[in-house]
Specification:
Rossmann fold, transmembrane, eight-stranded mixed β-sheet, 43% helix, 13 helices, alpha/beta, AB_hydrolase_sf, monoacylglycerol lipase activity
Amino acid sequence: MREWWIHVGLICIPLVAVYLHIPPPQLSPALQKWQSAGQLFHFRGRGIFYRDSYGALGSSDVVILLHGFPTSSYDWNKIWEPLTQRFHRVIALDFLGFGFSDKPRPHRYSIFEQASVVEALVAHLGLSNQRVNLVSHDYGDTVALELLYRSDQNRTGHLTLNSLCLSNGGIFPETHYPRLMQRLLKDSSILSPLLMRLTNFMIFQKGIGEVFGPYTQPTDTEFWDMWTSLRYNDGNLALDSILQYINQRLKHRERWVGALTSTVVPLHMIYGPLDPVNPYPQFIRLYHHTSSSISFNQLLG
């Protein structure tokens, strides 16, 4: 009996070792094109990827796009061209730890740092005195609320905001229900390294697919591009640190929800009610109770 288990171990250990060291997948042509159209700037010694396109003539409007978790600026690829027909400049970045930006580890990722990354990019592009429009999603919503807070408080280096459009983000901790894997990664310090290494494309696809509505499911190619951008530079191994943003939302609720309710910056919310992380009707009720003066658009799914 002992010899049988020894043989199994001799077979399984090398297989597990190989599995844990599978190289990241190659970028698709679409992701390669997106990457080649972008640039890097450096924030505190870290490379930050961004895209900056000039668009509509006769317009001076600038829009900055802030992506969600755990994806990248490539989230915006389908609306990039339409936006360039409306805005003079369309800008998107990969937050630190995401997409084609550097993914340091160990590192204490925070919403405050990501907001500073955005401010540094705006300064780098010479737009510090320009009024900008922010469009954000998910994780990007919380970064946007920190930027809003800094703007309202007239903090040094703050953005001058013309408008802010939020979409399906856990801006209220009390109506935010993270998925099981998110909860395990953010709270299980012992299990997190193993979980991050054992997660494969099928697990990722199932988890991400659950937060989309039945009529908006990504294609297999789109799922693969999300997975590829996550695996780029071993970004999957930084997820536990990045996910501390969920705890930060709770800790700094007064600061960020307070900015939402007290600002004079024009705000708009786009909400898909089939969101299991910020579910209907709990999110809607709290949103209208907290911020009844903010314009609102509810999607069909």
